[in-house]
Structures are given as C-alpha cells and as structure tokens.
Write a structure and sequence with these properties.
By secondary structure, the chain is mostly helical. It contains 3 helices and 2 strands; from the N terminus they run H-H-H-E-E.
Length: 142
C-alpha cells in the first residue's frame, strides 16, 4: 500500500511537472491552426488585390492599343503601318497573357514584356505614358 501511495504521488508530481510542457504543446497547436487560417485569409485578400491591379493595368493597355489601332487604320501610310504592327504585337502579347493561371512560371516576366512593349508603342506615338495604380484612384495620363 505504501508503494501504491508513493507511485500515486509520483504520478501527481509528474503531471504537475509535465503540465507546462503539455500546455505549451497544446498552445502551439492552437496557435499554428489559427495562424494558418489567418494566413490563408490574408493571402487570398492580397492575391485578389494584386490580381485586380494587374488586370486593371493589362485592361488599360488593351483598350489603349485597340483604340490607337482603330485610329491609325483610317490613314494608312508607312509610318502608321509600323505603329500598327507594334500595336498588333502588343495586342497579341496581351491576348496570350495567362489571366487564369496564377501559377504560371513566367507571369512576371511576361508582364514586364507587355509593359516594355507598351512603353515602346507610346514612344512611337509620341505619347508620355504614366500608368499609376494608387489606393485613391487609378489613372493613365498622357
């Protein structure tokens, strides 16, 4: 009976000593689960915002290119045909852009190529381009 009482008191002390470690482990698991959930929500919000900015920028480039292409087709000459070819190239790049595949390896690379082509077209048309997306408003100024 004395051995049983000593064993019981030893188990009680083990529980007290191990309580901190057990609570630390439980707290870690709860914190990890909560952090994972918050991370997914924050990631989704950031992805939506960033995707909307890219979509707005690409859409603006496409509208710009289509409008200028239509305007330049009215009076065809050698200068305008070069500009139209550059605009067609920009339009083609935009149409091939992978809007629905955020895991596309060369997404940023292709976006930079489109931006470069847009600047080239603006230079050919003697237009100052300044595409800004801010929290207050988005604008394309010429």
């Amino acid at each position: 009976m004395a051995a049983e009482a000593a064993s019981r008191s030893s188990d009680m002390f083990d529980e007290i000593v191990m309580a901190e470690e057990r609570f630390h482990g439980e707290g870690y698991q709860e914190g990890y689960a909560e952090g994972s959930h918050v991370g997914v929500v924050e990631g989704r919000r950031y992805g939506s915002l960033h995707g909307a900015k890219i979509g707005s920028e690409i859409g603006c480039y496409l509208g710009f290119a289509l409008t200028w292409r239509c305007l330049l087709q009215k009076c065809m000459d050698e200068k305008n045909s070069k500009k139209i070819r550059a605009l067609d190239s920009l339009i083609g790049m935009i149409q091939k852009f992978p809007y629905e595949d955020p895991t596309y390896d060369k997404l940023q690379e292709d976006l930079e190529k489109i931006r470069g082509k847009f600047k080239q077209v603006c230079s050919m048309l003697n237009i100052q381009s300044d595409f800004r997306i801010g929290t207050e408003r988005s604008s394309l100024t010429f």
